[in-house]
């Protein structure tokens, strides 16, 4: 589904990713861990096509297409979804309008007509319950004045409505209390299936207690330096990252 | 003489004005003819030129046109409606039954008592600085509207006055004048709606509205300038606020060849409060200019002002927001915010807050910004599959949507939301070319 080869990327002239390789097949859940500044969030942003993030070498194939040649919205329409670590607040644009525009974009991609507003509002309100978000948030500006936890739930709400092929969760667990973490985990677990894959970028092992990964990778110095199964996460939890960084160096 | 281009309409007004107004007209005409048109060297007109004024104007025809034929749709806000076409009252399109507590007198129809009442109030709000175009309005004052709201009257339904500019062979002028007196502790809403057939018809509307709020009165005042294309509008609103009165107002300016609106809110009685909000949306090669002036003369008044503009294509806009806090106006709280969004590299805005504060115990906050669409917001929408062009429209609309929310009259708020979302959805000019 996703094949990243020798990916190099820079931000403001600083090289962040330095030869990253990663292959994700449908049905798999991958966790990417690593110390601060190792390039974890950069990977998500590069895959989503964020302005200011420049790919200097390497290739990314997504569902058989050259991802790096596609516009941000084309990537999303193909089924790539990045849950932002810091979702953007957009006052004046109602959350409901935003969600419907996003769903309609997916439908357009499949050659379907825009969803009828009443049907959509009903389904959005129901999905709110799943993520434990007050439906009143649908009428507010996008993420406007939402708490950290509410923003993360709003990201999850979008993912549930859009049903992407590949979900990239960028530190979705950071700043969440245990109840909110379980809500997120339930949402992701409910979406797991043979057609779909997840890449979870996280700093802590805690999330992996709730969403069990098939593979765990350690990102350090802009490359994946170690891959293993979930036991690697436990080892990292016990020993920290320093020993790996030492090994690589 | 520079002011000759209005000779015919002024002669015609002088001939048709009711006798009790004639000295008022001649006084206006003397001031008009003694003046000279502002130029770019006139501080108040630095960014707005008057080149669009035609070499001569005639009086508008009597306005007996079918609005449907002219492609003009009258707004349906509910409430009482009075319609003027080309400056002339239209019985055909106006409602005849007024709500309780409100009397409406056209200057042309006033009896002796009414005339005396009009004369005692006319010009009392606008009189202080006498800009040239107010003199012109006085000089052409053959007719006008006097709305008199009785003390303690609570009028639920909005009053709306619609000014339509139609078509005729020559460039024509319309003189619009409205005087509203809100009696003590009354509550009322007034919508002024300017519209016209979208055409290359040359017209020049000179409008003056005076709002007099007596003690404890509450007024919601909305002024929508929806005329487009070659319809030129120079207008002025003066509000005088008595003690503990409240003015809640909203302005909308769609662009045209030239649209200049001056607003003066004069806090004259202690405890008065005003809220002034507005949106302007010039595109193509249109020009919109709002000059607002908030006068705080007495202590314990508050004012809050928010204007936002979206300027597209090669359009230009001007916003000048003055706050003047006089020496005695202690404990004043005044806020002013002006934000502008440029959706094209050729678009231009000149914004200037102007503070003059002579009291020492006041709170005054102001800010003015000019920006393009936020790159991260755009990226966020696109990362959910929303195409760039649509995301740009959503963000532009979102920028003004917040201001629409400040409109208290629900039917009007819905009207505005429909009007503006339609405008944004279909207007490719606004979404293109974001640098």
Structure write-up:
The complex is a heterodimer of chains A (249) and B (435). By secondary structure, chain A is α/β, with parallel strands linked by helices. Chain A contains 9 helices and 12 strands. Chain A has helices spanning 40-48, 72-78, 95-109, 117-130, 148-162, 178-191, 206-210, 230-239, 242-248; strands spanning 2-11, 14-24, 29-33, 53-62, 65-66, 80-83, 90-94, 141-142, 166-170, 197-201, 215-220, 223-228. In chain A, the strands form 3 sheets. A 6-stranded mixed sheet of chain A has the order 6-9-10-3-11-12, with helices on both faces. In chain A, strands 2-1-4-5 form a 4-stranded antiparallel sheet. A two-stranded antiparallel ribbon of chain A has the order 7-8. Chain B is an alpha/beta fold and 435 residues long. In chain B, 20% of the residues lie in helices and 38% in strands. In chain B, the strands form 2 sheets. In chain B, strands 1, 4, 5, 7, 9, 11, 13, 15, 17 and 19 form a 10-stranded mixed sheet that branches. Chain B has a 10-stranded mixed sheet with strand order 3-2-6-8-10-12-14-16-18-20, covered by helices on one side. In chain B, β2 (80-85) and β3 form a beta hairpin. The N and C termini of chain B lie far apart (45 Å). Residues 426-435 of chain B have low confidence and may be disordered. The chains are: A alpha/beta (249), B alpha/beta (435).
Order of helices and strands of chain B: HHEEEEHHEEEEEEEEEEEEEEEEHHHH
- Binned, the helix content of chain A reads 25-40%
Low-confidence stretches of chain A: none
The largest β sheet of chain B comes out as: 10 strands, mixed
Ranges of chain B with pLDDT <50 over ≥5 residues?
426-435
- What composes the largest sheet of chain A? 6 strands, mixed
Q: Would you tell me the structural class of the helices and strands of chain A?
A: alpha/beta
**What's the total number of strands of chain A?**
12
Taken from the alpha-carbon principal axes, the silhouette of chain A is globular
What sort of overall outline of chain B do the alpha carbons produce when their principal axes are compared?
globular
């Amino acid at each position: 589904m996703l094949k990243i080869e020798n990916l190099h990327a820079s931000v403001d002239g600083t090289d962040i990713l330095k030869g990253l390789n990663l292959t994700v097949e449908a049905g798999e859940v991958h966790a990417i861990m690593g110390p601060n500044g190792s390039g974890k969030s950069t990977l998500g942003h590069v895959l989503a096509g964020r302005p200011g993030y420049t790919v200097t070498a390497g290739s990314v194939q997504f569902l058989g297409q050259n991802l790096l040649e596609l516009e941000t919205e084309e990537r999303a329409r193909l089924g790539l979804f990045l849950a932002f670590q810091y979702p953007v607040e957009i006052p004046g644009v109602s959350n409901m309008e935003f969600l419907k525009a996003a769903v309609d974009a997916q439908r357009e991609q499949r050659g379907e007509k825009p969803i009828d507003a009443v049907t959509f509002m009903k389904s959005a309100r129901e999905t709110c319950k799943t993520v434990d978000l007050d439906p009143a948030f649908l009428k507010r500006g996008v993420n406007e004045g939402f708490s950290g936890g509410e923003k993360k739930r709003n990201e999850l709400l979008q993912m549930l409505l859009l049903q992407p092929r590949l979900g990239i969760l960028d530190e979705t667990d950071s700043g969440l209390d245990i109840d909110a973490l379980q809500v997120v985990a339930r949402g992701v677990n409910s979406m797991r299936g043979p057609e779909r894959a997840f890449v979870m970028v996280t700093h802590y092992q805690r999330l992996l207690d709730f969403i069990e990964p098939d593979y765990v990778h350690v990102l350090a110095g802009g490359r994946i330096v170690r891959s293993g199964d979930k036991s690697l996460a436990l080892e990292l939890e016990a020993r920290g990252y320093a020993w790996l960084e030492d090994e690589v160096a | 003489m520079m002011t000759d281009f209005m000779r015919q309409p002024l002669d015609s007004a002088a001939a048709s004005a009711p006798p009790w107004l004639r000295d008022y007209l001649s006084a206006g005409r003397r001031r008009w003819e003694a003046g000279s048109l502002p130029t770019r060297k006139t501080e108040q007109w630095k960014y707005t030129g008057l080149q669009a004024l035609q070499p001569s104007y005639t009086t508008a025809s009597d306005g007996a046109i079918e609005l449907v034929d002219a492609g003009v749709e009258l707004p349906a806000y509910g409430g009482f409606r009075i319609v003027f076409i080309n400056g002339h009252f239209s019985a055909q399109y106006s409602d005849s039954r007024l709500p309780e507590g409100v009397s409406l007198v056209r200057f042309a129809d006033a009896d002796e008592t009414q005339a005396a009442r009009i004369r005692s109030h006319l010009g009392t709000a606008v009189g202080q600085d006498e800009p040239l175009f107010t003199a012109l309005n006085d000089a052409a004052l053959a007719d006008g509207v006097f709305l008199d709201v009785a003390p303690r009257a609570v009028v639920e339904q909005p009053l709306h006055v619609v000014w339509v500019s139609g078509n005729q062979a020559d460039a024509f002028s319309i003189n619009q004048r409205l005087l509203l007196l809100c009696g003590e502790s009354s509550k009322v809403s007034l919508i002024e709606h300017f519209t016209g057939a979208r055409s290359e018809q040359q017209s020049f509307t000179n409008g003056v509205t005076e709002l007099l709020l007596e003690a404890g009165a509450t007024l919601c005042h909305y002024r929508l300038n929806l005329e487009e294309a070659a319809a030129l509008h120079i207008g002025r609103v003066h509000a005088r606020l008595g003690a503990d009165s409240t003015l809640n107002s909203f302005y909308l300016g769609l662009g045209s060849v030239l649209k200049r609106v001056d607003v003066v809110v004069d806090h004259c009685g202690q405890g008065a409060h005003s809220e002034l909000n507005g949106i302007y949306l010039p595109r193509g090669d249109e020009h919109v200019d709002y000059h607002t002036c908030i006068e705080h003369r007495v202590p314990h008044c508050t004012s809050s002002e928010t204007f936002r503009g979206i300027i597209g294509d090669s359009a230009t806009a001007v916003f000048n927001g003055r706050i003047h806090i006089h020496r005695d106006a202690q404990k004043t709280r005044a806020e002013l915010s002006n934000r502008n969004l440029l959706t094209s590299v050729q678009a231009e805005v000149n914004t200037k807050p102007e503070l003059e504060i002579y009291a020492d115990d006041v709170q005054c906050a102001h800010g003015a910004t000019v920006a393009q669409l936020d790159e991260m917001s755009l990226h966020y929408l696109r990362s959910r599959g929303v195409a760039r062009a649509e995301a740009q429209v959503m963000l532009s609309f979102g920028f003004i949507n917040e201001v629409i929310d400040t409109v208290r009259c629900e039917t009007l708020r819905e009207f505005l939301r429909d009007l503006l979302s339609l405008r944004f959805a279909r207007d490719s000019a606004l979404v293109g070319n974001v640098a």
